Amino acid sequence: MNWEMIDSQLPTLFICINYGKVKAAILQGEDTRLEMRRRCFRQFRYQEAEGPREACSHLRELCHRWLEPQSHTKEQILELLILEQFLTILPEEMQNWVWERGPENCAQAVALAEGFQLGQPEAGLWEQQVRIF
Fold first, then answer.
1. Does this model's pTM top 0.70?
2. What is the band of 130 on the pLDDT scale with cuts at 50, 70, 90?
């Protein structure tokens, strides 16, 4: 065994492993930030503003922070809105179960909901790929 070669590759291996962990943490942070922005938009109340004009202006600002129209396509924004509404209309037990698993798109949410109905909650979540045009 060539220990020098292995030894010289360890820092690269370590960086790759750490990169994976860092990337996962960043993505988790993005998911958390997106969810917080969604909640701020959805939970905003008229009483928090000083009149209709300010309320509407604040809602517009919160919506832009959540949906980021400057960096997302119309299709991505629609997918996010449809996903949220789909999760909202599910029966409560199913809704909670699916929501906890954090589907990233409608196809994943549908697969989870169908798996929940079949009594096999994990069935088909990531295997089912649906293209959205």
1. no
2. very low
